[in-house]
Amino acid sequence: MAATSKRLLLSDLVSSDKIDKVPSNYIRPISQRPNLRHVFHDSIPLIDLSHLYGPNRCHVVDQIGRACREYGFFQVKNHRVPESTIANMMQIARDFFKLPEEERLKIYTDDPTRTTRLSTSFNIRTEKIANWRDFLRLHCHPLQDYIHEWPTNPASFRDHVAEYCRSVRGLALQLIEAISESLGLDRNYISRQLGKHGQHMALNYYPPCPQPDLTYGLPGHTDLNLITILLQDHVPGLQVLRKGHWIAVDPVPNTFIINIGDQIQVISNNKYKSVLHRAVVNCDEERISIPTFYCPSPDAVIGPAPELVTDDEPAVYRQFTYGECYNKFWNRGLATETCLDMFLATN
Ligand code: OGA
Ligand code: NI
């Protein structure tokens, strides 16, 4: 009986116990279900980064600024992350989730403070309803502080993932400069606010689901970090909230999806919003997505940029350390309410 399975990981419950119904702890109340028939296919902007370092830079920066203001989400092409690096990363993720259960379970933990961990749902210590997802979470910057914790099986895991992390970090730094400029700030302003900088990633594995109308891979949430760079495979599942409607972001090969996280919302003093998004699942195919969460280091002090605070637009948030915000985020379930409410300026 699936509902009484003792398996720690969802993928093993799905593949070994051959369930044909979603177990009760994954079922959302009727009012919170995804309503998959009410989804729009209007897309988010696709921005070509090839001119970011040419004479047309300001044009690309304008496009990025507009996408941040209007959508909080955009896709990028010609981003200089090699296709082979992307293909190797996706293949290693696929291979990792195919390892035998006992091999994967060596790094399983439900402790969200661990810097390398395989787990399931979002935070099973705090949530009441589980999510249809397993994930491997890694810290990746500074690389030498964490790489020794990473899996060594598959054998090329560390090499391929490290190469991907370095390359995507280069893209993150370019985007952060462009976002800084698009706000009218010095190109290096945001980068300077991030302390030693931080970079985390997740390898998300969403198994096929017998009743995708009843549950989520991940329910609506905003990302806590600065910006997220998402790689997804060919299976749709990401949806973004726009003007009260969920729109599906269908995969485009060799592009990344970028979204503004909560820390850009704070630094921009609410000019750019960290937008709700969610992952839905489907009956037919497994889905893999690989978000890179670029973030400040825990000791970095985050607050609205002084240049963006005026008499007409006073500071919306007080200053806080990223570590403080990060701990609050992981100590509660994944919620549609932003944790930024805890850091509002008291006028
Ligand atoms: C996330 C996330 C979306 C996806 O991991 O924060 O929003 O498509 N993932 O997996
Ligand atoms: Ni997210």
TrEMBL record:
Domain of life: Eukaryota
Fe2OG dioxygenase domain sequence ranges: 196-296
Keyword Oxidoreductase applies: yes
Reaction equations catalysed: salicylate + NADH + O2 + H(+) = 2,3-dihydroxybenzoate + NAD(+) + H2O
InterPro entries: DIOX_N, IPNS-like_FE2OG_OXY, IPNS-like_sf, Oxoglu/Fe-dep_dioxygenase_dom, Plant_2OG-oxidoreductases
Keyword Ion transport: no
PROSITE patterns: FE2OG_OXY (PS51471)
Record GO biological process: defense response to oomycetes
Molecular functions per Gene Ontology: dioxygenase activity; metal ion binding; oxidoreductase activity, acting on paired donors, with incorporation or reduction of molecular oxygen
UniProt cross-references to Pfam families, sorted A to Z: 2OG-FeII_Oxy, DIOX_N
Key words, A-Z: Dioxygenase, Iron, Metal-binding, Oxidoreductase
Swiss-Prot/TrEMBL cofactor(s): L-ascorbate
Family classification: Belongs to the iron/ascorbate-dependent oxidoreductase family.
Protein name (Swiss-Prot/TrEMBL): Fe2OG dioxygenase domain-containing protein
Species annotation: Mikania micrantha
